[in-house]
Amino acid sequence: MNPVLTDDRRQLTFSSSSPQSLHARHPSPLHEPKRKAKQTGRIPDTQGAAKPHPTTVRRILRDLGLSYIKIHACRYDCVLFWGKDADGNDLEGLHRCPVCGTDRYKRTPAGNRKPVKVLRYFPLRDRLERLYMSSKTAEAMRWHAVREVHDEDLMVHPADGEAWKHIDREFPHFASEVRNVRLGLSSDGFNPFGTMSLSYSIWPVILVPYNLPPCGRHESSSNWSMRKA
Questions:
Q1: Average per-residue pLDDT in the chain?
Q2: β-pair partners for 14
């Protein structure tokens, strides 16, 4: 057998055909992540730090109260199989849509039952509460009301816009508490009328807290501003 000396940096192999020859063979960097994965059981990133397993991430988010709820939906978005309808009928136990009659589940090639469409609901209240659990984010959520305004004609935050001020005038009780959260609704790829040709079936609907200051407000290069007309 050929004697082999191995360490973390290189492998030294003596050739049997030429005992005097010494070959230094460095392992390929492409094999390094695979080798470390076998040793640790985790896949390292490009910097060598092991990434947590997805199950670990989900458990941490669940313990923080930031998990999501899976709700089955009709193939054609008629109903959600959750809770009760307006007449008090239970929807969670149904196997067909009460509106169009399509099946709630489909069969996989392995013969398992799988919901045709799933809505992932991220409870909003828990996430808003956690914005005020840290002193830093709590301060940032009040920044829109306590900041110094040096130029009334310069818009650096939605609070400087006419829409924000209109809400303040229409709902003074809501506006009197600066900790109340104002949200903006946005979506990406949402196709409510089926008029777009899309090759994917995931449409995120995102709520953005407008209370927060502009991203990177301490870096002048990241600030944005707009002069009112």
A1: 74
A2: 22
184 in Cβ contact with 210 (< 8 Å): yes
φ/ψ (deg, to 5) at 217:
-65, -15
Q: pLDDT for 142-191, tens place per residue?
A: 999 888 887 778 888 889 889 999 999 999 999 999 999 999 888 776 66
Dist. CA 226–CA 216, nearest whole Å: 16
Alpha helices by DSSP H, 27-66: 32-40, 54-63
pTM for the model: 0.55
E strands, 26-181, in order: 69-73, 105-107, 113-115, 117-121, 154-155
DSSP lists the bridge partners of residue 205 as 187
Residues 6+ apart with CB under 8 A from 157: 144, 147, 213, 214
Q: What is the DSSP letter of 119?
A: E
The residue type of 2 is N
Q: pLDDT tens for residues 104-147?
A: 999 999 889 999 999 888 888 888 888 888 898 899 999 998 88
